[in-house]
Design brief:
Length: about 90
């Protein structure tokens, strides 16, 4: 299957972006705990704040589109299952 034949939806792209944003937040938080200087911790804290803000924007976008539901676990599981099936179908 060629790339042009794969069905990549906006929902899948947004979900991937959300997961990437979450990973970035975790990495900045870990880096802050390992940083020996105040100046570097301050810079990383600003980057962490920006990463959290980006995550919030992506999450709100997805929630408004009904692509992400952090409040209803059963509904989110259905969304995750649907995305997993799509990913397997397109691989």
């Amino acid at each position: 299957m060629t790339i042009s034949e794969r069905l990549i939806t906006n929902e899948m792209i947004a979900y991937d972006l959300l997961m990437t944003a979450k990973a970035g937040v975790k990495c900045y938080a870990a880096a802050i705990t390992e940083t020996p200087t105040y100046e570097l911790r301050t810079m990383l804290q600003r980057q962490l704040d920006d990463a959290i803000g980006a995550h919030e924007q992506i999450m709100n976008y997805m929630m408004n589109k009904d692509w992400y539901d952090p409040y209803e676990v059963q509904n989110q599981l259905k969304l995750d299952f649907k995305n997993a099936k799509a990913a397997l179908r397109d691989s």
